[in-house]
Every structure is written in structure tokens, then in C-alpha cells.
Amino acid sequence: ATNPIPIREALKLQPGQEVKVRGWVYRRRDLGDKAFVVVRDSTGIIQSVFTPESKSHSEARRVTVESSVIVSGKLREDPRAPGGKEIQGEELVIVGLAENFPIRRDVSREFLLDVRHLAVRSRKMTAVLKIRHTAFGALHEWFRENGYYEVQCPMFVSAAVEGGATLFPVKYVDESTVYLTQSSQFYLEALIYSLEKVYTVAPSFRAEKSRTRRHLTEFWHAEAEAAWVGLDGILRVEEELVSHIVRGVLERNREELALLGRDTEKLELVEPPFPRISYDKAIEILQSRGLNISWGDDLGADEERVLTMEFDKPFFLYGFPEKVKAFYHKNDPSRPEVTLSADLLAPEGYGEIIGGGERIERLDELVAKIKRFGLNPEDYRWYLDLRKYGTVPHAGFGLGMDRLVMWIAGLEHIVDSLPFPRTVARTYP
Ligand code: ATP
Ligand code: MG
Ligand code: MG
Ligand code: MG
């Protein structure tokens, strides 16, 4: 007997050849005395048809959706079949007969999340996961080709990076309270003193209380930090990196994007340089569109959505007021009320995917700002040490990988960008 081959390969063979494939039953129906079994594997789907003359006609009639099977027979042309070819079924071996599969067309979104461990088999989820795979791979490619060292940072931490409101406390071994990390930034900053350019890809945890389309409580965070780099330099890194990832997906995942119904026209435009607009200008635009917002306010998803309508590619928003950005952001020496920070917003309504900028390098400036923010310098002892021993100008950023995938794949909700989402409402399955 021949060995099983991937369905994608089987569909490329000439009609008349014997083939064997294995996978899971995607669809099954009877038409007169013929049994049609569509089989799915990680590479695609193929139809097989079993007539009463074939050895496994009765197996083909009784096999259920999502059963695992091995199917063999002769390939033949059929314009009505997916992929234009089908298997004239000879043998069908049932490896694992599935019970009545709970997922049907009419089930609710909530139910699909309850059975996520089964829903991950869907062709759409498979397509998203393949795109996600490309995105993570392309990210590593870009950093490694551009002289960044990959490092790993702890998940248990003792201080807040992004503010206390979203901290997850954990009872530690000695009964003291520690927290799950909100960002690896401070650790990356410590590592630039030896490696100069570093990055990491890890989960970050934030106890986000509001239910939005773009917040998870555990998300995949790609963060980078570089010595001797300023705001302009780090924005160039961000635009090159994001463009490289989008290019990679366009090269390798056309089929998946099509299956998801993603219009790729706007993705084709993702090439550096990205437009840059100031926070001041953004406020003017928002006010002229009738939004009730004034200088000094933070921008939320609604404001960002309005701004994304002005551009058909990702764009930077820079020069945020001191108050709306975390304490470690460096203030603009020529205009101290604003920071040398920038967010990267994805177009088509998606909004913030990256936050970044220059960090404060001087000890006195950092201590003063920590106090201005009502925080205690004692809590940041080791972070302050970094400014005492050979401080350097440096900059960095954090990219939300789930948000990046959400935008590239054209998804409506962030939970659909990863297999097992964690949100305020869900930690199961
Ligand atoms: P937002 O304004 O949407 O709450 P943020 O400004 O708090 O985001 P940053 O601290 O700048 O986020 O984190 C860097 C990046 O990490 C963000 O640009 C975003 O892509 C991603 N990110 C932040 N929080 C979340 C979350 N809860 N779920 C998914 N991704 C997130
Ligand atoms: Mg936030
Ligand atoms: Mg933000
Ligand atoms: Mg941000």
C-alpha cells in the first residue's frame, strides 16, 4: 500500500493515480447510494466518493463528522469538487469514530468559546493560526537580521511598569505578594548595557476590567530596546519591522487571507515610511470631526478609529502630553509638556498596535518624574541603578502581536487572533 500524503499534494497529482490521505471528516452526505466524505488535514480538504462496489461503502456511510480516517482510492477530475479533483474511494479506515460533534452552523459565539478546544479545528481558525505563525517567524527573522539579541525576562515581578490599576497579584512561595509582568521593558533596558540591542516575545498580563474588542488579560508582547537610539531611530525600526511582517504574510499566506475574506489592497500599501502626525494635530482633527476632546486627554479606541480613517496605511502619532504616558517616557527638551513617545496605529479602524519612544536616561530627571507621578522612587530601586552606572540614551517599544494578527487577518475581535484567549470573562478552556 502507498503512504498517506498531504491533501495539498494529492490535489496536484494526475487523474488516474492511486492516492492515500489521512485526516478528519469535514463533511459527509449520501446522494442516492453514493456516500460523499470530505476529508480535512492541515494542508487542505479533498472529497472522496464511495459507491456500493467499493470495499468500504458501509464505513463511508456510517462515519461521522470529525472522525479521524485514512482514505485511499484513485484520483479523478471533478470540477464540482473542492480543488477540482476527488478520490474515487476504495478503502476508508476509521481510526477514531467521533461522537456527535457539538459544533454546528447555528451555534452562538459564546458557545464556540466554551468549546474552543474543538472550535480551533475550524478552517478559519486554522487560517488565522497559519498567518500568526508567519507573523511570529517574520518578527524573529527581522530582529535577528538587524543585530538584535533575543532574551528572556521573568514573568513574576515586584513592581508595576504600566501602572497599578491592571496588576495581577500572585501569592508567592513565601506568602508575599508578587505580580505577573505587564511588560518586560525594564528588564530589556537592563540588558542593553551588555547587548545594546535586545528583544523578547513573551506574554504580558494586565487585569483589563473593561470588555473591548482589543484587550486580552494575557497577550503576546514583542518588545525591543536599543542603546544609542532616539525617537526617530526607533520609529524606523518599527516601520521596517511591521512592513517585513506584512510582506511575509502576503508572500506566504495568500490562500489563508482569501479564506478569511481579507481584502489585501490596503496591506499591499504597508511599506516604509509611515506617515507621522502629532498629538496636537490629532486633537485638531478630532475636534473638527465633532468629538468632545481637548488637549491633554488620552485617546481611546473611539478616537483612534476616527483618526485611522485619515490614512490608508499604518501611521505614527507622536508627542503625547506627559500625563497620558507612563513615567519612564522622556520629555521633549524643547517642549517639556510633551513626551518623545509615539504610538503606531493600524488603519481600517484598528488603532494602536505599538507604543514606544525614548526613555529618560538621567537619574535626577527620572527620580523627579517618578515623584511628580505620585510614585515612590524606593519601589524602582534597581531600575534607577541603571541610570547610575553608565547611562545611555535609549529607546524601545512594545508591539501587541495579537492586535497585529487581528489587523493583518482582518478580524473583528482580538479573541479570534489566538487559539485560547484569556479575557476578563474567560479562562476556560
Ligand atoms: P491600550 O491603550 O489599547 O490599552 P496600552 O497603551 O495600554 O494599550 P502599551 O502599554 O502601550 O498598551 O503596550 C504596548 C502594546 O501592547 C499596545 O500597543 C498593544 O498592541 C498591546 N497591548 C496592550 N494591552 C493589551 C491588551 N490588554 N491586550 C492585547 N494587547 C495589548
Ligand atoms: Mg492599556
Ligand atoms: Mg494606549
Ligand atoms: Mg500604548
Automatic annotation (TrEMBL):
GO terms for molecular function: asparagine-tRNA ligase activity; ATP binding; nucleic acid binding. Keywords: Aminoacyl-tRNA synthetase, ATP-binding, Ligase, Nucleotide-binding, Protein biosynthesis. InterPro entries: Aa-tRNA-synt_II, aa-tRNA-synth_II, aa-tRNA-synth_II/BPL/LPL, Asn-tRNA-ligase, Asp/Asn-tRNA-synth_IIb, NA-bd_OB-fold, NA-bd_OB_tRNA. GO terms for biological process: asparaginyl-tRNA aminoacylation. CDD domains: AsxRS_core (cd00776). Its EC number is 6.1.1.22. The keyword ATP-binding applies. It holds the Pfam family tRNA_anti-codon. The keyword Cell membrane does not apply. Residues 138-429 form the Aminoacyl-transfer RNA synthetases class-II family profile domain. It is an enzyme of class 6 (ligase). Belongs to the class-II aminoacyl-tRNA synthetase family. This is Asparagine--tRNA ligase. It comes from Infirmifilum lucidum. The lineage of its organism: Archaea, Thermoproteota, Thermoprotei, Thermofilales, Thermofilaceae.
